[in-house]
Amino acid sequence: MSRSQALPLFLVLVVGGGLAIGYVTLPGEWYAGLAKPAFNPPNWVFAPVWTILYVLIAIAGWRVWDRGLSFPQALWWAQLALNFLWSPTFFGFQQMGLALLVIVLLLVTIAGFIKATWNAERISAVLFIPYLLWVAFATLLNASLWWLNAS
Exposed, middle or buried by CB within 10 Å (0-12, 13-18, 19+), for 119? Predict the structure, then answer.
């Protein structure tokens, strides 16, 4: 597969997959009824932020694939699996504690990807920094929601 063919495939996989999972696991009534921390963003913020992040994630994945960096590529696939697992765990199964475990693993995997690519593929590492910051915030939000709504 050529470089020019691979990038659109990465974009479709990541952006399309992320948006599809987001659509299937819309927050709904259960989420609306939860007690939320004061720093909880309005719902409309999530779709544009995630769309931008998914584009950055796709480009970083394409870049490590194109350069044949096997360990960073394994980390990239792991973070994508964890990313796609979080929403069904949180919204679909309504398991905030398990979702917290998933997102902590995601955060660690993102940090590992940044570390693994920092010297070999700096652009990919930098593309993941906004993702790391957002997932760190989302981890705090998940933990706060779990804490506020524990029965």
Answer: exposed
